[in-house]
Amino acid sequence: FIEDHFVFMEQADGGTANIESILDRAAAIVMRNGARGLVIDPFNYIDMGADRERQDLSISDMLTKVRMFALAYEAHVWFVAHPKKMYKIDGNTPIPDGYDIGGSASWFSKTDIGITVHREKGTTRTLIRSWKCRFKWIGSIGEVYVSYDPVTGTYSEDVFAPT
Asked: What is the pairing mode between strands 154-157 and 37-40?
């Protein structure tokens, strides 16, 4: 299934990838293979260039380019972007959202759908939280706890999770 439905791109030449090179290669794959989805993982390995002094503007411009690519090629684009360091408040670490991804509030404002996958330390429980959904016909804001089964490598809804 994976060989028939996925194409993996890597930056294997020893250089760093910028968003233009990623989107150029993705466009070729869309045209050649009919792909309709692109996962960029992880965001923090993209070379944002040294010509911009403000990281927030660079990220905003990058997200605009990705949006234009998605519209032009009728494709979905997902980013895996890790949050900045989260500091405990009253002994609890807050669950990050789009404002907590390092570099720019554009991660929240320009996102159509934002999801956080938050593992609870020391347990097999994971919280999946939808913190933004721009279009109500696609989904809604909410959350669900899932538990990981290391034997099968699958997740299932955690029926004992807090409501």
From this structure: unpaired
Tell me which residue of 131, 133, 123, 132 sits closest to 161, measured CA to CA. 123
d(CA 145, CA 163): 9
Residue-wise pLDDT tens digits, 71-82: 999 999 999 998
Contact 103, 81 (CB under 8 A): no
| The two structure tokens encoding residue 63 | 């997200």
Q: What distance in Å separates the CA atoms of residue 19 and residue 92, rounded to the nearest whole number?
A: 36
Q: What are 83-137's pLDDT values in tens digits? A: 888 888 888 888 999 999 988 889 999 999 999 999 877 887 889 999 999 999 9
Helices (H), the chain: 2-5, 19-33, 55-73, 106-109
Contact predicate 46/53, CB 8 Å: no
Q: Which residue has the tokens 């989260």?
A: 86
- 3 Cβ partners below 8 Å, 6+ apart? none
* Both structure tokens of 105: 């509030």
Tokens of residue 98, six digits:
């789009």
DSSP state string for 83-98: BPPPPPBTTBPPPP-G
For 156, the token pair is: 């299932």
The span from the CA of 100 to the CA of 72, in Å, is: 29
